[in-house]
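Tokens for Putative sulfurtransferase. Go.
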Amino acid sequence: MTTSALRPDGRVVSITYTSSATRLMSVGQLVELIEQIRPKNERLGITGLLLYSGGNVIQTLEGTADAVDGLLEVISADPRHAQLRVLDRRLVDERAFATWSMGFRNVTAREVAQLQDFTEFARLSVGDDLAPHAVAAFDLLDTFRVNAV
């Protein structure tokens, strides 16, 4: 992984965002997309996790500020995304998804419903103001990381 532009203190930027797909993607299309993304992220030193459910995306990206901000610009301009909202941006001492160039999970509505702590977050649409739920959004991603097979 590229580390040349790390901060002197070793911290990285972590951004969590949500967006809506402009059209639903099949599992096959999602897998193909993730397979294209992983090598690019690895070259950029980006790690993270993407959850997709019924056209809704929630993703955390981690890396240098330049790499994360550049990738977020690309994602914002991607016609497959609409209503992109950054929920949280912070400097972190260590990556939550350090071993994943991009983890991915197609999450069923049943799986989200079973996560009682995230009921309020899951009920909100992407277009709503989700800023008060940024911690729940990151915790949702982290739950899938911890329980990954």
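Residues 125-131 have pLDDT under 50 and may be disordered.
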